Known about the structure:
This protein is α/β, with parallel strands linked by helices. The protein folds into two domains: 9-79; 94-153, Transcription elongation factor, GreA/GreB, C-terminal domain (Chitinase A, domain 3), CATH 3.10.50.30. It is 32% helix and 21% strand. It has three helices and seven strands, in the order βααββββαββ. The protein has helices spanning 31-53, 57-76, 127-132; strands at 28-29, 78-79, 94-99, 104-110, 121-123, 140-143, 146-153. It has a five-stranded mixed sheet. Strands 1-2 form a two-stranded parallel ribbon. β6 and β7 form a beta hairpin. α1 (31-53) runs antiparallel to α2. Mean pLDDT is 92; it is low at 1-9.
Amino acid sequence: MSRAFVKDLDGAEGEELPELAISAHRNLVTPEGLERIVATLRRLDGELTAARAASDRATVARVERDLRYWSQRRSSAEVVAPLASPAVVRFGCTVELLTESGERVRYRIVGEDESDPAHGMLSHVAPLAEALRGAAVGDVVPFRGGEAGIVAID
Length: 154
């Protein structure tokens, strides 16, 4: 039978889960991002204890894999403290853009694991973040097939 028709056992029955991919980029994090990593590690420790107590091998395998990922991310984290009044866009800054249609959008440049563009958190390795890096108020950057001007940097 084809593997396409076999249930993925997520580590049960001796099958190993694939490791979570670690980015090749520097692991820059905000102070809040580091707090989230530490909280994730604590949560996973609790899940591992519960899974072992329940003899849930599939969950133990998944949580152990996740712990390896987050432990590595914690050990490689480079915390970057925000500047009080940045003159140019850098990691940790919040940038307000004014689009050609008059829409104002705000993004904070954060670590890869913190990224959530729908909520204004943009990974420092995202193309827009790379276009913004080093730019100042008044500069124009490519944005959504057009352009947007930087109106504020916090």
